[in-house]
Amino acid sequence: MNRTAFDPHDVRGDFPILSRRIHGTPLVYLDSAATSQKPKRVLDTLATFYETSNANVHRAIHHLGEEATAAYEGAREILCRFIGAGDPTCCIFVKNTTEGLNLVANSWGRSHLQPGDEIVLTEMEHHSNIVPWQLVAQERGAKIRYVPITSDGLLDMEAFAGLLTNRTRIVGVAHASNVLGTINPVAEIARIAHDAGAIVVADGAQSVPHMPVDVTTLDVDFMAFSSHKMCGPTGAGMLYGRKELLEEMPPFLGGGDMIERVSKEGTTFAKLPYKFEAGTPDIAEVVAMGAAAEYLSDLGLDVIHTYETELVDYALEQISTLEGVRIFGPREGRASLVSFSFEKIHPHDLSEFLNQDSIAVRAGHHCTHILHDVLGVPATTRASFAFYNTFEEIDLLVRSCRKAIDFFS
For 220-300, where are the alpha helices, taking DSSP H only? Predict the structure, then answer.
């Protein structure tokens, strides 16, 4: 197959953990959809912040406080550009994608949903874009409807359009499925939803780290994503929101830094984005998240996406040769992961077998119970790839799967 000029060996040295040996064998890390590995630039940024600039933000006028605040707000500007947001005040720091989606459900949902209103989600959503809506729907008397998927793992767009009514208020959709690898047509979904008078809440956890994402072009009202899936540290993430919506929403959490003035009679709140950033944030993690975005930008998200597409195409081709395998999701135009199963091997058993060859994959329902119910399987094995993976590692995965098939048969 024709391959891009990108060479993963040029960047693997940036990731100290990839040099580990487990059970005496070099680590093959194929679980980046759960959490990515971190380059030395990000690790150094974390250490340098704590060693040289550690202080709280937005509170002090001493030198360290000013340095910390500048680094924190600098990361906001970097990440705003990274997703094409335009206005940094529309970019809210959160702990992860889950908190970002909960913020929208609890703030926008609770203040806007009325009994009989409808929320449209998809059968492929991560629990993070289902459970918060179930909670607020139960509280507000709203109804949830689900867009079905086709036999090849795509959203049924005709069914989606048919689900929208004059009571539809919210459409929640994953930009890329963490199980099927499906890349959903979010811009088209947004156009249809907006024509029906609904807002669009997108889960960008599996797209933002792997491909160019422009929230303005996609025309989403909200999009959340996590640092730890984009080569950054855990404990940091971002919620983008349309400014006019954020301005009218009540705070999600109350406390320090999100207030303008507190009196016995009541509180007035800070302007965006601080209205939604209560308390001391994960400062060092946010700064390192900015470093991760710069690292990915320097490599080029278009280059990353092209190479990872070649990886997943090769993986699909090779995994398909395995006896008795069932592969889930579309065969083309997908994110860089493959979920599969064997009738006679439980995914947990396969994962443990692969682990003996130092191959790290994910096994389970991947926080998508509804999707696995639709697929008719309790769990799947998922191999997920990043730009630091190689074609040779896919060969090792397939070779180990063949050994497992022989063993369990």
Answer: 243-248, 283-299
Residues 150 and 53 occupy one common structural domain: yes
Residues 275 and 311 in one domain: no
* Residues 333 and 270 grouped into a single domain: no
SS3 242: coil
Hey, what's the torsion of the CAs at 382, 388, 394, 396, to 10 degrees? -110
Please name the residue that has the structure tokens 């705070």. Answer: 251
**Catalytic member of 80, 91, 367, 401:** 367
Q: How confident is the model at residue 2 (pLDDT cuts 50, 70, 90)?
A: low
Q: Which of 258, 278, 298 is the last residue of a domain?
A: 298
Give 143's strand partners: 118
pLDDT above 90 as % of the chain: 95
Residue 107: Cβ within 10 Å count: 22
Residue 90 CA to residue 239 CA, distance in Å, equals 8
Nearest to 60 by CA among 257, 248, 342, 208: 257
Q: How many CB atoms sit inside 10 A of residue 75's CB? A: 28
Query: For residues 182 and 156, is the Cβ–Cβ distance under 8 A?
Result: no
| Domain end residue (candidates: 263, 298, 333) | 298
Residues 317, 191, single domain; the answer is: no
Q: CA 39 from chain center: how many Å?
A: 18
252-291 pLDDT tens trace: 999 988 888 999 999 988 899 999 999 999 999 999 999 9
Active site residue 367: yes
The crossing angle, in degrees rounded to 10, of helices 283-299 and 63-82 is: 40
Interatomic CA distance for residues 73 and 93, integer angstroms: 10
- What angle separates helix 283-299 from helix 301-319, to the nearest 10 degrees? 80
**Cis omega (within 30 of 0) for bond into 378:** no
Domain that holds residue 314: 9-30+300-408
Asked whether residue 316 is assigned to any structural domain, the reply reads yes
Claim to verify: residue 171 and residue 314 sit in the same structural domain: no
